[in-house]
């Protein structure tokens, strides 16, 4: 009888301890980090790179549908071009719409800046005459910061490279048109002396129905805007540690209504198809050191 009482007492204490630990973990998971906060030690070794492909096009571009379709076929498990889950699970796409060869794409017009010089226009800054890429027409594709042709093996070489940076979006939540990002970054090396690392966090959306000038009816991975502030990214100072930070973003309820394109109301979408892609890029070499995305 005494032994049975001891066992019951032990189980009671164990359950209280376990509950307390789980409750503490839940509280930690719900913490909103307004600034970069160290939460752990750095990696013990470098990791493999994930891959980011940035597709630049427009519904005004007659050549874009074929290129876009070819790229997407590599991700389609039912297509003969499918490159396999081992590749696609670590390969992320962002499709930016632009004003080349002419204006009138509603998915670009909503984000168009108002200044005459273009400093507040994301497309101008990143692709046209800014400091990141220079494009001479669309479609144009960049993979991990390098100009790339659209081929089945376009991501393979980058996946064979190693990087000191690991990223995670665990804890990120998408609720309707609201996104709460929880981004953790872990490094195997002290990179605090490197003043060229920029963080970009993009909101994007799949399964948009809109038929524009070029006849393309369905659009995937469409860029909606930067979740973190700054068209040139957020400068990072990374030590040999794990850091975490939260961001909040809300999809504009009138997207993609604007004052230029009159067919904006024909764009159909579902906020359930929202997603997030975060990547770190060197502003001097344009190398993408790491990328991660939500499913």
Count of runs of 4 or more consecutive helical residues: 6
Name the poorly predicted regions.
1-6, 10-14, 16-21
Which structural class best describes the helix and strand composition? alpha+beta
Oligomer: single chain
Largest sheet: 5 strands, antiparallel
**From N to C, what is the helix and strand string?**
HEEEHHEHHEEHEEEEEEEEEEEE
Radius of gyration computed on alpha carbons: 22 Å
Residues in helix, %: 10-25%
**Whole-number mean pLDDT:** 90
Write down the overall geometry.
globular
Terminal CA distance: 54 Å
Short précis:
By secondary structure, the protein is α+β, with helices and mostly antiparallel strands. Helix content is 19%, strand content 31%.
Question: Keywords for this structure?
Answer:
globular, single chain, 19% helix, alpha+beta, disordered N terminus, 295 residues, 6 helices, 5-stranded antiparallel sheet
């Amino acid at each position: 009888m005494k032994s049975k009482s001891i066992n019951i007492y032990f189980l009671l204490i164990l359950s209280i301890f376990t509950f307390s630990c789980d409750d503490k973990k839940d509280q930690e998971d719900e913490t909103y980090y307004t600034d970069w906060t160290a939460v752990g030690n750095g990696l013990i070794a470098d990791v493999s790179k994930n891959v980011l492909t940035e597709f630049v096009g427009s519904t005004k571009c007659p050549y874009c549908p074929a290129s876009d379709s070819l790229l997407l076929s590599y991700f389609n498990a039912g297509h003969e071009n499918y490159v396999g889950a081992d590749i696609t699970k670590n390969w992320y796409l962002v499709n930016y719409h632009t004003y080349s060869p002419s204006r009138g794409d509603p998915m670009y017009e909503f984000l168009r800046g108002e200044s005459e010089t273009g400093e507040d226009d994301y497309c101008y800054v990143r692709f046209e005459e800014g400091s990141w890429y220079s494009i001479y027409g669309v479609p144009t594709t960049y993979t991990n910061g390098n100009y790339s042709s659209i081929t089945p093996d376009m991501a393979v070489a980058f996946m064979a490279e190693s990087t000191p940076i690991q990223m995670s979006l665990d804890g990120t939540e998408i609720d309707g048109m609201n996104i709460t990002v929880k981004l953790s970054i872990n490094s195997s090396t002290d990179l605090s002396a490197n003043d060229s690392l920029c963080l970009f966090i993009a909101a994007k959306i799949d399964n948009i129905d809109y038929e524009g000038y070029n006849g393309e009816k369905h659009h995937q991975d469409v860029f909606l805007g930067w979740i973190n502030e700054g068209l040139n990214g957020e400068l990072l100072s990374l030590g040999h540690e794990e850091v975490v930070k939260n961001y909040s973003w809300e999809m504009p309820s009138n997207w993609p209504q604007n004052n230029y394109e009159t067919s904006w109301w024909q764009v159909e979408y579902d906020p359930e198809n929202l997603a997030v892609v975060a990547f770190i890029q060197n502003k001097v070499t344009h190398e993408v050191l790491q990328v991660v995305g939500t499913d």
